[in-house]
Amino acid sequence: MRTFSFRARLAATMSALILLICAAIWVYVPRKMEDEAIALISHKAETLGQLTAFTIHPSIHFQDRAALEEALSGTRQDKDVSYVIVDDAAGNRLASFHPERAAAGGHYRVTTPILDDGKEIARLQIGVSLERLNRQIMQTRVAIGVMTAIILAAGLLAVFLISDVMTRPLRELATAAQRIASGDLNQRVPARRGDEIGLLADAFNDMAAKVAERDASLRLLSRRLLSIQEEERIRIAREVHDELGQALTAMKIDLQHLGSQHAPLQEPLTTIGRTIDQIVDLVRRIATDLRPAILDDLGVTAALEQQLRRLRETTGMKTTLTVTEEPQLDMLTGATLYRIAQEGLANVVRHAQATDVEVTLAVRDGAAVLKITDNGRGMSQDQVANARSLGLIGMRERAELLGGTVVINSDPGEGTTLEVTLPLNKDGHFASAMR
Ligand SMILES: Nc1ncnc2c1ncn2[C@@H]1O[C@H](COP(=O)(O)OP(=O)(O)OP(=O)(O)O)[C@@H](O)[C@H]1O
Ligand SMILES: [Mg+2]
Q1: How does residue 435 score in pLDDT terms, banded at 50, 70 and 90?
Q2: How buried is 125 (Cβ within 10 angstroms: 0-12 exposed, 13-18 middle, 19+ buried)?
Q3: Residue 364 C-alpha to ligand 1 middle, in angstroms?
Q4: CB of 384 closer than 6 A to ligand 1?
Q5: Domains in the chain, start-ordered, CATH in brackets?
Q6: For the whole prediction, is pTM greater than 0.70?
């Protein structure tokens, strides 16, 4: 269902109110005028009837038609009088003025009996035209209509301006809240007077400050935990590799020595030796997965090369690595880049059905930029935006912890490009404090 903005609803309500008031005026005022004018006209008509009856009474009494016409001339000249009819008691016409108009509407009619010693000798009918009245009412209606339109226009403008001014702080709050929701925790709204909206703005700013504070300490904590995790991995990897690896190698040498001294044991000992070789390989793999020594010894390029070599060997995919400038990375950020590359490449293998994968590493605008492009089946923007699985979310979070970004460009059938940007400080090291 479509919802209208608060401003639109406020404007609509106030406009409806203005319209209602104008409509009431439009209906009530002309009706009131009409009532008053009709009262006035009826009074005038009654008076005119009495006066005319008095004037023509002698001429009717003496049956003098010429005098009757003469006596009626004053009444005829009245411009509101539309017709005059004088009939005798038997209904014969004695005199008239536009009698045909009597049948038509639009008149106020008065009938006045003309009495002679209490006996009706004639009857006078006068019709007073309502045309002038109707015209006046029409003019009033038009004037009120025009006034209504002007009031409505002015009212709407005022409503628009008032509602704009009234809702501006709310809109600012909504915009700031949206920006905070999208990650810009430095958003604040301007301080206002101490009214309700001012209190809301203050509360909002307080809340935003607390959220930013909490977010900063969470980031610090996460960074610290990642650091500790990475250090721990280095330690375990080293111990597994050095201690376990060396112990196994020593064990193999002892077995070989034992075999050379006891010929019947030679064969089973060779089998055990092969198993030990497999365990040594496994130990190396575990150590490399935990933290590739190459990352610390030779840097991220060599580590990426090693990853891609492994990918070629296990999948047969065509891989290329282009490094335009090797960024100098500290322990945590080197690991971040490496882990994101690891997850990105794992996704290519698991989901892309690609034949080619291209990795580039560069330093651009003071940031290390790693791109992984595959020619696989790609994914929709919806899939990119609504990822619930930990892979994509984890990549983003790792990058954001160091002030960086992960952008995925992909369309179904068009392959996927994953671009990781991690800011470097002036010396080419990551700006983020590790601990
Ligand atoms: N390179 C790619 N090509 C095509 N689809 C991809 C690619 N990378 C990711 N996807 C799609 O995006 C989804 C989310 O990826 P993500 O790494 O978050 O989860 P996952 O790999 O399915 O699970 P996880 O990584 O948590 O084990 C995948 O399920 C896949 O459908
Ligand atoms: Mg994944």
Answers
A1: very low
A2: middle
A3: 27
A4: no
A5: 6-150 (3.30.450.20), 300-435 (3.30.565.10)
A6: no
